[in-house]
Specification:
single chain; mainly alpha; 3-stranded antiparallel β-sheet; two-stranded parallel ribbon; 11 strands; elongated
């Protein structure tokens, strides 16, 4: 088998959608699994919508995810340039080859004339497919002269063969395109720029792409592309069309479902390895049905035979859970660094306070990272240790615990023990609580629930003793005092 060469070819017209990120990931894993090459190609021939800023955002998002490439705009390679806007001479040259071979021709029709043909076909109940006979009647010496005088270039059309085409898709199996599904179509527009279906084939041929893994919204494009491969007498790559990503309502994932771009998840404090792990499971499954999968293991097991043709549902609840799992596995130093911008933005602490209290903050993060699912949640969790809060003595659930047998006396006794605790260590706090329970014999569950609520305004959270230690002796006393006495 020749060297595997795949490509991810985004258009730089906005942020990287999670669907595009998954396509890039599948290409990356496939290439790595086969010790092949991953090519990044920027398809920026849509001059009105493509921007340099979007290209930089795409590259930044891919880099953040940990998806790298062997050839592309930032690294070069033997088949460049890797931006379509820099390859227009190549497209014109290859179109000339097709015209010389008799499978492409020039069209001198004005847009209104094409529209009239289109409308007439529909009125006659015929498919609105152009043919060379329809287009060439406008190719007269007079029309050529008009175009020349106006500085206009003719459109170059591809002469679509009238026959069936069969695609053997790596995911979907055999797909048949019946004769007459499309008519003749444009290769080069009047402005000299190539159409998508033409440029992508020229690039894939010249860049020696062996496998095309892309979204199933491109299936309809494949017929035209197969015909162009055939016209160039070029080897057709293996195609694999990955299913669409849907929202929980079964409709195509869009902004109405919430965050849909890689950048949005990054800005909310998701870890790249968590997002990668989640995306790979949108359509692919591990042989042992694992859900938490290191990248090295994804590469080891990835194959198109395990890609499901059914649409995948984007479940942000599961993504948050997975992100929480990765946060708990991460080094505390890393989570601290990632948390700093969120802490600053929330104004929980200033930069001077962060720098001066790093050791304490690291201890707090080590504790609270067991209960957060996004790094953006860390400031609010930290605020429990720092900021005071209004306490509702009339909360029914709290009253149920607080009024249970022995709880109030137990809390008073704990207050006195804390007042005399000069060590203030996790061990001394543990001893004080044990002593309190042994002497006052409160209902244990009610005692712990009431104490946690008084100190954190929550009924659930991370380890209580470590939480008490980090809140600090004075603040713990103050919070017990305002409720119990």
């Amino acid at each position: 088998m020749k060297e595997v060469r795949v490509r991810f070819a985004p258009s730089p017209t906005g942020f990287l959608h999670v669907g595009g990120a998954r396509t890039a990931l599948f290409n990356y894993l496939f290439a790595k699994h086969h010790n092949g090459k991953m090519i990044l190609r920027i398809e920026d021939t849509d001059a009105e919508r493509s921007t340099k800023e979007s290209e930089e955002q795409l590259i930044s998002a891919l880099t953040w995810l940990g998806i790298d490439w062997d050839e592309g705009p930032t690294v070069g390679g033997p088949y460049g340039p890797y931006r379509q806007s820099e390859r227009t001479d190549i497209y014109r040259h290859k179109a000339a080859e097709l015209m010389q071979a008799g499978v492409a021709y020039e069209g001198y029709a004005y847009p209104q004339e094409l529209e009239n043909i289109h409308d007439a076909l529909l009125e006659n109940g015929e498919p609105p497919h152009y043919t060379q006979e329809m287009i060439s009647k406008f190719d007269t010496p007079q029309r050529r002269k008009e175009f020349e005088e106006k500085g206009m270039s003719p459109v170059i059309y591809f002469k679509m063969p009238r026959k069936d085409y069969i695609l053997k898709d790596m995911i979907r199996g055999e797909v048949v395109f019946k004769e007459g599904s499309v008519g003749d179509f444009v290769l080069i527009r009047s402005n000299g720029l190539p159409t998508y279906n033409y440029a992508v084939v020229v690039d894939d041929i010249l860049m020696e792409i062996t496998h095309v893994i892309r979204g199933d919204d491109h299936i309809s494009n494949t017929l035209r592309q197969l015909a162009i491969y055939e016209a160039f007498d070029a080897q057709t790559p293996y195609f694999g069309h990955v299913s669409m990503i849907l929202g929980p309502d079964g409709k195509r994932l869009s902004k109405r479902h919430g965050a849909t771009s890689v950048e949005e998840f990054k800005d909310r404090g998701y870890l790249p390895e968590a997002l990668i792990n989640y995306l790979v499971l949108l359509g692919w499954s591990h042989p042992q049905a694992k859900e938490i999968i290191p990248l090295t293991e994804m590469i080891e097991h990835f194959g198109m035979e395990r890609v499901n043709p059914s649409s995948a549902i984007f479940d942000e609840v599961k993504l948050r859970w997975m992100n929480g799992m990765y946060i708990r596995q991460a080094q505390t130093e890393r989570i601290f660094k990632l948390s700093v911008p969120f802490i600053m933005e929330s104004k929980v602490l200033t930069m001077d306070q962060i720098q001066g209290s790093k050791k304490w903050i690291m201890q707090a993060i080590e504790l609270i990272k067991t209960s957060v699912e996004e790094i953006s949640q860390i400031p609010s969790e930290l605020s429990i240790f720092i900021n005071e809060f209004e306490f509702d003595l009339q909360n029914e659930e709290f009253k149920g615990y607080f009024e249970a047998e022995g709880v109030k006396d137990g809390l008073k006794h704990l207050y006195e023990l804390i007042n005399n605790d000069m060590l203030w260590t996790v061990e001394s706090i543990t001893d004080n609580i044990k002593s309190c329970i042994k002497i006052k014999k409160p209902d244990k569950k009610s005692f712990y629930m009431a104490l946690r609520k008084i100190l954190t305004n929550q009924f659930h959270g991370p380890d209580l003793v470590k939480t008490i230690h980090l809140i600090g002796r004075v603040r713990v006393q103050q919070r017990i005092e305002r409720v119990v006495f």
